[in-house]
Amino acid sequence: MSAAPLPVSDARLEEALVTGLAEIERRLDLAVRRTSVLEDAPSRHLLVAGGKRMRPALALLAAQLGTGTSEEVLEAAVGVELTHLASLYHDDVMDSAPTRRGAPSAHEVWGNSVAILAGDLLFARASQTVAGLGPEAVRIQAETFERLCVGQLHETLGPRDGEDPVAHHLGVLAGKTGSLIAASAHYGALFAGLTGAQLTAVVEYGERVGIAFQLADDVLDLTSSAEVLGKVPGTDLREGVPTMPVLLLRRAVEAGESDAAGAAIVAALDGDLASPDALADVVAALRAHPVMAQARDMARAWSQEAVRHLDVLPDSPARDALREFADVVVERLA
């Protein structure tokens, strides 16, 4: 039996996750198949490239807090992953990302228009999948889709005059990442019979784990190797994509609370990073700066806050696995 994508120490729980994920993978394949060859290749592009399937796995795990995997849980998990895949097509177009999951991005193969339309097709198929699960499921999908769009819009427009860029970035992460991970946990718990404070706790956990996960990625973009990242470390710096270490450093410099090294890094970030050497130098300077520890601590704080929301749930292997997952999200930073 292959290992589950989330940390699980209970054999029975792991078996339930692995079995459920195999069925979800089968349904995903059916969901993205198109009758036309012209539609099929672009819409299947990211699915066949692979992925951890973290979101459907979280839906399955949350379901184990209640009555377990059901037809509704499986379909909801498929809808969540289709929504995630669709958002990646659009993200790659907006970021001009050349690769995704080790393969050329869809827009590199077919162009921006086809990539955007392929993402739209997957959003439509996600909506069709969720529509069969009832009004509450449709409401969750609609609200999550709205938050994804608003998060991307806020990232594109940037903070308003006078708005704290750090708080703005956290809001972007909540919309673009936290919302869909929260929806995954919400669906699993909802269709497994959780209600009231327990259901709310699982949703709040998912949102905070999602933010912690993305904050950790902000750090890893600077500290990991090109082989691990699948891109040159610091690519976000060159493209002007906001990340938490840089935002924290800029805030400190603007407030006069940074050292000379921090001011020099900010000056370099505002300069020309087109050459590999210039980018490598500023990445090395950031890696050595104390702001990286501050960014790591922020990710850990969000992870710990997520775990605190699980206190209302009874002891179970599933709750233990959710705690372990929150830890693993930030253990990547060690």
Automatic annotation (TrEMBL):
Its cofactor is Mg(2+). It comes from the Bacteria. Signal peptide: none annotated. InterPro entries: Isoprenoid_synthase_dom_sf, Polyprenyl_synt, Polyprenyl_synt_CS. One of its GO terms (molecular function) is metal ion binding. GO terms for biological process: isoprenoid biosynthetic process. SUPFAM superfamilies: Terpenoid synthases. Gene3D superfamilies: Farnesyl Diphosphate Synthase. Keywords: Magnesium, Metal-binding, Transferase. Belongs to the FPP/GGPP synthase family. PANTHER family: ALL TRANS-POLYPRENYL-DIPHOSPHATE SYNTHASE PDSS1, GERANYLGERANYL PYROPHOSPHATE SYNTHASE. This is Polyprenyl synthetase family protein. It comes from Miniimonas arenae.
